[in-house]
Amino acid sequence: MFRGRSIHILDDKGRIAIPARFKEVLKTRGEDSLVITSEGSSLWAYRKADWTILEEKAARLSQFNTSGKVFLRYFISGAEECKLKNNRITIPKNLRREGNLTKEVVLVGELKRFEIWDKDKWDEEFERVKAGFPAAAESLPELSI
């Protein structure tokens, strides 16, 4: 599972280093690439196996359902497979543009995926979710230990 947050530098070619703890998740699963797509102000990166499950579910959506069409046209059609090479991935130019990525980026582990944020955007988002965390945690009693 992907967990933790880390700041990275996006080079001019769109490459970022993958943290060792994320590489370990991919290595133990025998994966050498990620599927990355845009979602709002960030990019979401999935292991190929998890992406395949999502695609199989999406393939069952009605072709006449408006929400399904929106999901397929935005989220699925924007997905790109990005190979892991020399412990880095290259994010395609169109996805860098979609995520408004500049030089500094933050990788945010969220268990089955991780998000890639422009650092300034992430700082804003983190303040927003930090403020909402007490209420969110209270509304999820199933997570209590």
Descriptive notes:
The protein has 145 residues and is an alpha+beta fold. It has a single domain, classed as Chemotaxis protein chec (3-Layer(aba) Sandwich), CATH 3.40.1550. Helix content is 40%, strand content 29%. The chain has 5 helices and 8 strands, in the order ββαββααββαββα. It has helices at 20-28, 48-59, 66-76, 93-98, 119-138, and strands at 5-9, 15-17, 33-39, 42-47, 80-85, 88-90, 104-109, 113-118. The chain has an 8-stranded antiparallel sheet with strand order 1-7-8-4-3-5-6-2. The longest helix is centred in the last third of the chain and has 20 residues, at 119-138. It is globular, with a radius of gyration of 16 Å. The two termini are 19 Å apart. 23% of the residues are buried. The mean pLDDT is 94.
Low-confidence stretches: none
- Any idea what the CATH superfamily is called? Transcriptional regulator MraZ domain
3D shape: globular
Please report the distance between the alpha carbons of the first and last residues.
Answer: 19 Å
Count of beta strands: 8
Tally of individual helices = 5
Biggest sheet overview: 8 strands, antiparallel
Strand order of the largest sheet: 1-7-8-4-3-5-6-2
Report the CATH C-level class: Alpha Beta
CATH fold-level assignment:
Chemotaxis protein chec
Mean pLDDT over all positions: 94
